Here is the input.
Amino acid sequence: MRLDKYLADLQLGTRSQLKTDIRKGRVTINGTPVTQPDYRLDENRDTVTYAGTVLTYRKYRYYMLHKPAGVVTATKDNFDKTVLDLFPAALKTDLFPVGRLDKDTEGLLLLTNDGELAHCLLAPKKHVQKTYYVECSGTISQEGIERLSRGVDIGDDTPTRPAALLLLSQTQDRYCLEITITEGRFHQIKRMIAAVDGTVTYLKRLSMGSLVLDETLAKGQYRELTTQEEAALFTPLKFSTE
Ligand code: URA
Here is the structure.
């Protein structure tokens, strides 16, 4: 791997800043200063220091973002601000969002550069649980709750898979729910609520697999996953309807 890429992967700066630092002799490999940014090193064997600190290489990075409403879940967009626009340039080079939240949906979004993990979490057969807090206008009957729990026709080839529902509150013309689903169909929660004659007025994702939104993150803020969160992600729980 090229030395400047190695350092950039560790988010030590932008590629051009790092090239300058390398040329200035701030980097050593196995104790010897190396001043060529295109020097090829072995990231598993060589000992690299940057500004006197020994580095440990990490290929994959995982961040949780508290997605605010008004940004689109994409890496690039010609019209709207994207979730990646909430990250600084040096961090976001190879990140992408795992799955998609609508522009007006808030809450937990995982971003990584680990394509394999993303594939695993999104694979339909894995049935990874996603829990949403949902505010709706309209009213919902016990029968509506049961229909959503069993699986409901939202106009696709098959009904939705069983979901876990918790009615949090209900007034004359509004209600709040927590819904856990194990699929990721387009506008799934909005279409499920529409199937029982309601309208979603606010939607927030609270969790995905074992990963729970850190409520101390303000909307628009992100942080790296802890070692425990990262480890748990690799063993997502399978949803059981029993
Ligand atoms: N379901 C929706 O309708 N929208 C989202 O953003 C996520 C789930």
